[in-house]
């Protein structure tokens, strides 16, 4: 009886782990190419990241360019000098300021799909969530807040 109970508990634990692994794999199936586009912070619509085909992120706040970074998606350790988990479930966004190669930031990608990107700055708590916009910066269609009013993500 005790062996049967232990066996059932072990099976339930394995099923739970498998479900978590599968969930994370499904929601992290996005390549650099899928990152291309406009991403708007869900907490502050004045903050926009534009991922471009040239391998750069253009960081805007309140309609003004505040930084330009090269970016890469990484799966190895270390990241920014920190030992991180490796494997198919773990992915990291590494950005480097193109004007100051010492300004490097590494984020753990918590989840990503074609609509949302959720990241966490390594060695920090909390998370940052971006939603991908169907619009361009030239034709914002009330998707962005350039400081001229309260505009929400559609």
UniProtKB/TrEMBL annotation:
Source domain of life: Bacteria
Chain segments annotated as transmembrane: 7-27
Keyword entries, A-Z: Membrane, Transmembrane, Transmembrane helix
Protein name: DUF5640 domain-containing protein
Lineage: Bacteria, Pseudomonadati, Bacteroidota, Cytophagia, Cytophagales
